[in-house]
């Protein structure tokens, strides 16, 4: 065995799927496996130390090829390795080094799932050798027979999961001898014995076998049948309890693949484990494309508030920052907008977020902060803020309603509908003064308020630009041909579909329009949909590959609007106060 012994039958009929890309749904009987075993000098993998490689390629119980060779590790062999394996220094002197063996080995394992007993050890040596000698590791799917045996066999059947013990249990044709090819052939028989036992665990595919070998919970194994029969299409999936209550709602471009992932070792979230224990079935809602799936998910979560969903559950809890309608207006946090409200900002996801933005406006303009309803005719005693110069004291009529509106209320209206320049300049000036005085903690507080103001104004102006359009039709190329179509009315997805490949999309669009939801105009930035739904639609429309097909009116944003401060917003959210001192215009 001084040179590589490479024996392989004709490969004309083999599937040409790279190991890393082997379809996890491929049945085990149709999967090509390469069972490998290494002998080494011991120690940690460092790119060397391999003394022998043995590999057997099998599929459907049939042997397709064999690769076996001694390898010169370039270092002396420890005596105990010689005693264990029978491999001597004299046997390795004429053997090729690992860098000469790797090309043949990497070619041999192409198209296959790699199998080894205690696979991390063998794979670690092979990956280190590839890295050391400049070969790309193909990253094949790996199945560990030792890990699989721990899941399949009980302690009553075998006392341990050593290869020799398993070989005796399955009565393999070749007994392991601490030589690479013999051990690889023994592992082949062990693999076949384990696969025969997997049917009772509802494990029929290579992906299921790999996941089954990992540390999945008993609940995941017991409930994995819930993932059976689901469509491989975009849509929404709903985990339901025994009484049909929705427990969890999710979305994916491939429902079947996504739901299967909940039953793998990669799913470690405690709340999902609890959800799976209560789930009795999974319902799939097929959608035309990803945008419709995302919107349906949001609407289902909002309608049912599933206990195991964390986000998007209570859109009705959104709040607004409103300028009150009185002689000396103030900012008020409210749950709903009235048709008569004209100056407002939002929606905010929480009262705390709205109050942070309000604090930013209070830092920038002299809006009063008291909650009294002030009269044009009678006065009230001033508060401490007036004594500190933080309020123009409209309660004592130190300022006229007209001047108060010009200095305090008008900048808020302008900032929310068009240009927040006055507010931004005032906050940047305050940050600059605080930073110059080395009052960095106070500067950081003002910076967070500036970010809250910009975040809210940018968001609302984007929403207003879309929700003011009565109808908009857009399209983007579908992955498998045809066009994904969306009909949007006042910021709400009214209809969706996909035109067939090779067919003009106009008839499909007209059919969508004829059956689309009727959406009437309303007031506010999000009159007929949640802010999150409209933002999902905006993200889809703003993709480079999306095309506007028809639009009922112009889609525009203010030239001097908040959008031009996006870079400043990013700095305020991520940077220090010193980065903002140069932003004043």
Structural summary, described in words:
- The protein has 585 residues and is α+β, with helices and mostly antiparallel strands.
- Helices cover 39% and strands 17% of the residues.
- It contains 20 helices and 16 strands.
- It has helices at residues 79-85, 89-92, 98-109, 119-133, 145-152, 163-170, 180-198, 206-213, 218-223, 255-261, 270-278, 290-304, 351-364, 384-387, 401-417, 421-436, 440-467, 506-515, 531-541, 566-574; strands spanning 5-8, 32-40, 50-59, 62-70, 113-116, 142-144, 235-240, 246-252, 281-286, 319-323, 331-334, 344-348, 472-477, 483-489, 492-499, 547-551.
- The strands form four sheets. It has a six-stranded mixed beta sheet with strand order 1-4-3-2-5-6, sandwiched between helices. The chain has a four-stranded antiparallel beta sheet with strand order 15-14-13-16, sandwiched between helices. Strands 8-7-9 form a three-stranded antiparallel beta sheet.
- A hairpin with a 7-residue loop joins strand 10 (319-323) and strand 11 (331-334).
- Helix 5 (145-152) runs parallel beside helix 7.
- The longest helix is centred in the C-terminal third of the chain and has 28 residues, at 440-467.
- The chain is elongated, with a radius of gyration of 34 Å.
- Mean pLDDT is 90; it is low at 1-19.
